[in-house]
Amino acid sequence: MSKDWKSYQPLLVPAIRDLHEISVYEKNNGYQALKKILKNRKTWTPANVVNEVKTANIRGRGGAGFNAGLKWSFMPEPDGEPRYLACNGDESEPGTFKDRKIFEFNPHQFIEGAIIAAYAMQIDVIYVYIRGEYRPFVLKLQDAIDQAYEKGYLGEKILGSDFSVEMHTHMGAGAYICGEESSLMESLEGKRGYPRVKPPFPAQRGLWGRPTTINNIETLANVPLVMQHGADWYLGIGPKTHPGPVLYGISGHVNRPGVYEYQAGMDIMTLINEVAGGVRGGKKLKALIPGGSSTPPLRADMLEGVTMDSESLRDAGSMMGTAGMVVLDEDTDMVELIWRISYFYDHESCGQCTPCREGTGWLEKTLRKIKDGNGEMRDLDLLLAICYRMEGRTICALADAAAWPVRYSIDRFREEFEKKCKKTVYAVA
Amino acid sequence: MAEKHTFDDKDLKEIEKLTAKYPDKQSAVLPVLWYAQDKFGHTDPAVQRLVSKTLGVPEAHIRGVVSFYTQFYEKPMGKNVLDVCTCLSCQVSGGYDMLHYIEEKLGIKAGQTTPDGEFSVQSVECLGACGYAPMLQVTNDKFVNHLTREKVDKLIEDLRTGKQPDFESNPMPQHEKGS
Ligand SMILES: Cc1cc2nc3c(=O)[nH]c(=O)nc-3n(C[C@H](O)[C@H](O)[C@H](O)COP(=O)(O)O)c2cc1C
Ligand code: SF4
Ligand code: FES
Description:
Helices cover 41% and strands 12% of the residues of chain A. Chain A has 429 residues and is α/β, with parallel strands linked by helices. Chain B folds into two domains: 9-68, Arc Repressor Mutant, subunit A (Orthogonal Bundle), CATH 1.10.10; 80-160, 3-Layer(aba) Sandwich (Glutaredoxin), CATH 3.40.30.
């Protein structure tokens, strides 16, 4: 699948100077997909747009890989009251730094995608939720939104049609959990970001109790591509089960870290060795976290032939997540690393559910004990027992995200953990 | 007793614009807290009271929000807040070394403020700059990437004279090749 990656031309963030300027974007086919739809309303009814996007199988780029068009189809029929689209630019999963590339270098493609999504779901107002730490990028996006208003792509009666939609930015203030879609909505409503119990799902009852769809920024930036070139064309990029372009954020021990855009399904070793210039300092590869801190780490020997798409990564024993790849060399102390990940989840748990609030704390404490040389063998069993009591028992998936890296690391790097534990057996009395 | 913090007419106009984005006033709590923190440097209980009065949202609610989000300062901080990322990618790329260097240089620990009130230092979670590690953020604003001791020295010197860092753009490597 990735054999022709060298000739790949970026589609989400093309190498065009000043593309963030609306005039440059327009000169490069920008807003053409939106125009095409609004000019041919009979062909491109909202339902037909939803269908086209569904056929294209854009897998959500926020972490779960859910088909975007299918999600859109869950919105109920309009009843004359407001409906919302919330664009998720919280980007707080450690190892992830891709959506900011869209804000900085190609904001209009995302804006166009969001407008098309609003048209397809007959939505009145779009909110773009961006993590507070991205203030410089919020300002960049706001500039682009202002330009789009000036040119009549946003606001009342877009391009002379009877379709109207507003777009606002909303800045978070430092809370990873607000990336979880229902927490995001709470935060947009001006509250602490406590995730909501589902059902009801956002399409039934979302922002201010009204039907709402939540999509990731990169997901929406794919939409104009589909609507301009068609679902069939889009399905021809990368694997059919997980098609399209992907922003791979590569960090850690590589020679050339950064965000790279290639087709989905890239060979992992190609990404590490050729795209990112290989492991730094000529060291050996030890492990890879393929898609942000919550995706289970894979040992180097598990990576042969694995590609960056949901199916291949699932078979390999991990997940695609956000495609934020953290490359780890042979000198990495996995116990320190996993402890730090646990520290993160403990810090970020909102505390609503007992298994998560207590479990993340216990994982952190126990791993700290082990990393500081005070652990005992039975602490490893304790860790696994805590994971078991967290997984699938909470309001949102943060508890799972906290448990997986621990569970799978103990499984895959057990020797390292054991070495740090005192050579004790179970206490006799 | 006169209130320590107030919004003037210009502030109130700006706040009205922020509120207009949402169907109700409560939803403007985060943007108005940001506005207040930009003006006063923090969102301590007095500022919380002001925001509560301005929006007509209970003070207890505002307090709850401020304490939930790490970027809102519940008490005054140093003039410059250095948020050093020590999370995942930064951890494995020398994030803690940079934190410790800054701590040593300023003579304070993470979570503290220098006696002259110039600097606060915090160890923070992933800031979304993982490929440019180690890195820090200055007072909820600009990112300073690819930290070295020299870069830290220069930054602290600049900040002492009131010079804020410039926005650092990190292009995609594919763009740099001019392809
Ligand atoms: C704890 C947690 C944190 C999340 N953080 C983010 C995030 O920062 N950005 C994001 O797009 N999705 C995040 N998600 C996923 C969202 O809940 C949601 O699935 C996603 O935004 C939907 O968009 P998509 O279908 O386009 O991917 C998070 C989920 C969980 C459980
Ligand atoms: S799982 Fe954790 S983060 Fe999610 S709602 Fe429960 S306590 Fe909060
Ligand atoms: S881990 Fe430091 S910026 Fe992401």
